[in-house]
Amino acid sequence: MHGALVEKLRGIVGPAHVVEGIELSPYAVEGRTPEAAVFPGSAEEVSAVVACAADAEVPVLPWGGGTAMSLGTPPARAGIVLGLRRLDRLVEHEPGDLTATVQAGMTLARLQARLRERGQWLSLDPEDADRATVGGVVAANGSGPRRHLYGTARDVVIGLTVVTADGTVVRGGGKVVKNVAGYDLPKLFVGSHGTLGVLVEVTARLRPLPDAEALVSVGFERIKDAGAAVRAVMASDLIPNALELLDGEAARALGLPAAPALVVGFDGLAEQVAWQRAELARLAAPLGGQSARELPAETWGRLGGAARAAGERPAAVMTLVVLPAQVADVIEQGGVVARARGLGSAWAAHAGVGVVSGALFSARASQETAPIAAALAEWREIARGAGGHATLEWAPLALKAEVAVWDDPGPAGRVMRRIKAQLDPKNILNPGRFVAGI
């Protein structure tokens, strides 16, 4: 069956676009090497590949830039990787309507460069923009520091073209910002991690490039004081586009002093940005804020990975989602837990939206999993105790065997499983890797 399937795939996309053997090593997922990697060049070819795999009941793993493939429960079987790198065209850009339609395999950096030529941008700034594809960012509901003001992929997508599990090409939404009332079908696929359909085309709303932008850091002696400054900023007249809270280790990874820091971004007219920078310093000073300084532009792309970059190689990375007012407390508690287990930790948070990234570091040469697993379990309980949840963002395979990647979704899990069963009855699209085992 393997040979017959590969021959069919070659017939669909051409022999040059099917990879086998040793060349599959870059596409291994959690130690499992796929049977083949196939790279279609059109939505029609994607449809034919998926239909072919469905007939053979072989799992399909959609692959954009591969930046998020370490997230998820390890697959039981790798199946075939369906790469979208050949679907990399800007289909349509309507500057007057502030919309663009782009194929899913185009990298975010390349799209942004094209849009900048017309004075516009897509308000998404996840890590690894040079590798991350538009389809992958949408499938993961990706975002970065600027989500504080501009939101995530769910907030910018207005239309999608998707290939479902039986090979059907489905189009939802539209190419203008105002659409007719009804079910918002695209939102179902945003953040679904390729479990409901393969994204092949995305239409998104754009924004004009701001006249000026600045990223400012303010240092503090204690994380709780930096947390108080977060609350002061959110209660003020300031309109930041980013509001990041770093502990000393994450701050050091960015080249800042090894002390807690509040990093705030502003954009708009130059006069507005200048006023907000001065007002930030004024608000932070009574709370212990000091050494306010502007950071270089390249710091934007490093903020999201500041916790992971605090050491040579993290033992694990976990994302905790809590109320914004609880971020500083969660960071403090998480640090105490790590130290009690003889581990190091580093923390960075999108403080204004309550998304906290914690990285664990172990000095033990053997990288024992027991203390790391115990610390992660306590971190998850801290998130739950704050009314939130936690996701194991990255970990070695051995650790994933001890710690669940996803939190229990509760009653929502039943709804998610029913939707999966309706859209993918043979369970071939990225099976078992997402929440609730879908």
Describe what is shown at a glance.
The protein has helices at 2-13, 43-56, 108-116, 134-139, 147-150, 185-189, 223-234, 248-253, 270-284, 300-303, 327-340, 369-385, 397-400, 412-423; strands at residues 18-19, 36-38, 60-63, 80-83, 90-94, 99-103, 120-121, 157-163, 169-173, 198-205, 207-208, 212-219, 242-246, 261-268, 290-294, 316-321, 344-350, 355-361, 389-394. The protein is α+β, with helices and mostly antiparallel strands and 438 residues long.
In words, what does this structure look like?
- The chain has 438 residues and is an alpha+beta fold.
- A hairpin with a 4-residue loop joins strand 17 and strand 18.
- The protein is globular and about 70 Å long.
- An eight-stranded antiparallel β-sheet has the order 15-12-14-13-17-18-16-19. A five-stranded antiparallel β-sheet has the order 5-6-10-8-9. The chain has a four-stranded mixed β-sheet with strand order 1-2-4-3.
